[in-house]
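Minutes, structural biology subgroup

Action item carried over from last meeting: produce the structure token record for LexA repressor (Xylocopilactobacillus apis). EB confirmed the sequence was re-checked against the source entry. Recorded below for completeness.
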Amino acid sequence: MGQRFNDDRRQEILKKINNYINDNNFPPSIREISKMMNVVSSSTAATYVNRLIKDGYLKKQGNRSRALEITPKGLEMIGESSVDNNLIPVIGTVAAGQPITAEEDIEGYFPLPEDISYPSDELFMLKIQGNSMIGIGINDGDEIIVHRQNSANNGQIVVAMTEDNEATVKRFYQEDDHIRLHPENESMEDLIYPTVTILGVVISLYRPVLF
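Output recorded by EB:
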């Protein structure tokens, strides 16, 4: 790769990946990147991608073939604003089993689906960890789109922050003097808290392509 991998080459690859994501709502595979770059070997495309990941322009989630995200640094490289009205910030992982600490560090951006009417600055995206919501089809590894709001109606699926500053995804119920967070998994019990902080209501689900 050597001297040929300069800023112009980085921009070219990042723009093609970004255009693919905007057109398809999911990232390209390494094989598709090699076609976009007109290189014969997929290993060459993989080398380009790994270099972009190392340099902080791309981020890869897990070992799936379609797991690339363009970082804020990468978006800046190609002249795209990280607060683009068509991009939803991706904020790491949230538990749908045992709660885990939520850290609002933006890890990347996801194209705003056409069928969602909310503006992107009212939304964020999280990756699910755990199986407590499998009864309604939210599985471990799925990604959810959440509308930012600090209140919810009984029965809505929420991202809630507990008194221990841990975030979890559950069905919300306000009952008398406590909050009940209900897992959609028959093997798990409800979580009872005197109070929680609602971070948002789940409005959509994205399941990354597995092949």
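Discussion: The CA atoms of residues 34 and 45 lie 5 Å apart.
Next step: EB to file the record with the rest of the batch.
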